[in-house]
Structures are given as structure tokens and as C-alpha cells.
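fyi for ur records
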Amino acid sequence: MTQADPSALPPGVSRGNAAVDGAPFNGWFVGDFTRWLAERGTSPSALASVGLRDTPVLEVKWGIHPAGQPRPAGWATRTPAVGVSVLVAGEFVVVFREDARAPEREVRLCEQGDYVVWGPAVEHRWYAVRDSIILTVRWATAHGASIATSDAPPESE
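which gave:
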């Protein structure tokens, strides 16, 4: 009887490192790579290395932010997605508003596991108070809807 390689993964299982795999996509390591790569003009053959991480129904980002860093592009506009950010380490503030004329409201994430969830009608920006690691997930609000966002990762966020 042949012994299986214990380090080999069975079909349908994938592993990696969120920081490494997300680096070319501003931290997004799970998401619609088919669309993102097409928007970059990248060959579809690049999808082979993405595997199970390519999905149009969910996006996952691993964000590593040094103290004082603001969201580089300022306000993220409304998207057709719900988002949740979870503090892994550090201290992080997410600022929300309904539109440019509405008052700003801050949510401070201070303890590991603190999170904030926001819907599609809300604009947001953020900044790191201390060196921070944030896990962000986005998903469509309706079955079959696209997550396609204006701040998707093909270029810089």
C-alpha cells in the first residue's frame, strides 16, 4: 500500500498567506479575480494560481496598516455590498457618513475581535490609530447580485 504525502492537500482544499496572496490586490486575497484580472488586462491563465479564492460572491481583505495611515483614496463611495471589518490587532477607526452633507460618525475598534458592519448606503473612510491588522469581508446584499465596487482592487485603493 502506497503512503500518501501528508503535506499534500486533497482536491478542493487550498492554502496560502493572506498578506502575500493579497499584496497585488491591495490586501484582497479572496474575491472576483476573474473580473479584477480582466480589468488589469491580465491573461486568464493567471487564474490558475488563484484557484478557490476566485469568487464573485464574497471578498476578503487582510489589511496591515501602520499607525497614522489614512485610507489612501479618502472616502469609499457607496457600494452594492455589505462590509464588515474585524480588528485582529492594534487600534483602528472607521468613519461613516450617509453622504457628503451628512455628519460623520466614528467607530473605534480597540480590542481584538471588535468589529463594525455597514450597508450599501453608507460611505466610509478609515485610519489606523496604532499599527493595525484588519480583516474585512464584503458580500452582495441580494441573492445573485454583484459585489462589483468602485474601490475594487485592480489598481490602488
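The chain has two domains: 18-56, 57-142. thats all i got for now
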